[in-house]
Amino acid sequence: MDDGSLRFHDATLTHPGKVRRDNEDQVLARPDQGLWAVADGMGGHANGQWSSKTITATLEAAVLPPDFDDAASAVAAAVHEANERIWTKSVGQPMGSTVVALLLRDRRFVVLWAGDSRCYLLRGGELYQLTVDHSQVQDMVTSGRLTPEEAENHPMSHVLSRAVGVAPRLELDAVSDEAKVGDVFLVCSDGLTRTIPDAELATILAQGNPTAAADELVKICLERGAPDNVSVVVVNCDETTLLALS
């Protein structure tokens, strides 16, 4: 996708891993609209997969207006619609899903999320985690009850404090900023981030080829046992080449 003087190159990949038989992750790519998302379902195979598919299907069907702010509102509305659908079905059969969505347009980006799926930005050689996990452990870190080091292997690290479909009303967090030439975005499930440390993520993303980066990230997870489903989206922002015709 060309967007002003930015061109986006993307790659997506998802794998069930080496322990779980089924894949409850779902990946969405709408590069023509500048929209990518990852959803990590929970509640057992059937319920978790249905929940994550409901989110990506709703985002796939969403009509995104040309205006950036209107498009961001449409993405949020789609996630809230999915929340209502999952919550309505979940009576007596707990289910839900994380979601993290990236919208890139007009040299701007916004990330919306609920749960512990993440979005990172590699800029100028530095890796920034744009999202903050909605988990009980992260809440304890934020409140000062745990140090980041204590949180790394905490037994409650998988317990979410927020997700799509677990309550009638959903609170989405969002962060937005300017997109720049050379930016690399990584959207992923926790099956990746629990296996590969941030410093290694940065090295892999810096190679500049989104397909190669996505392949290598999943390959490393599999080599390390891949105890969970793993999903990755890599989006590179490059400068559009202008050709002078005479």
Average predicted confidence as pLDDT: 92
What string gives the helices and strands in order? EEEEHHEEEEEHHEEHHHE
How much of the sequence is in beta strands? 25-35%
Rg from Cα: 18 Å
Can you tell me the residue ranges where pLDDT is under 50 for at least 5 consecutive residues? none
Q: Could you name the CATH class?
A: Alpha Beta
CATH superfamily descriptor: PPM-type phosphatase domain
How many alpha or pi helices? 7
- First-last Cα distance: 26 Å
> What does the main sheet amount to?
6 strands, antiparallel
How many domains make up the coordinates? 1
Strand order of the largest sheet: 1-2-12-11-8-9
Specify the structural class.
alpha+beta
Shape: globular
Q: Enter the CATH topology name.
A: Phosphatase 2c, domain 1
CATH architecture: 4-Layer Sandwich
Helix content: 25-40%
* DSSP, total strands: 12
Structural account:
The protein has helices at residues 45-61, 68-89, 136-142, 148-151, 190-193, 198-205, 210-223, and strands at 2-3, 6-15, 25-30, 35-42, 96-97, 99-105, 108-114, 118-123, 126-129, 173-178, 184-188, 230-239. The protein is of the alpha+beta class and 246 residues long. The chain has one domain (2-165, 174-230): PPM-type phosphatase domain (Phosphatase 2c, domain 1, 4-Layer Sandwich). The strands form two sheets. The protein has a six-stranded antiparallel β-sheet. A hairpin with a 2-residue loop joins strand 1 and strand 2. Helix 1 (45-61) packs antiparallel against helix 2 (68-89). The longest helix has 22 residues, at 68-89. The radius of gyration is 18 Å and the shape is globular. The model has no long low-confidence stretch (mean pLDDT 92).
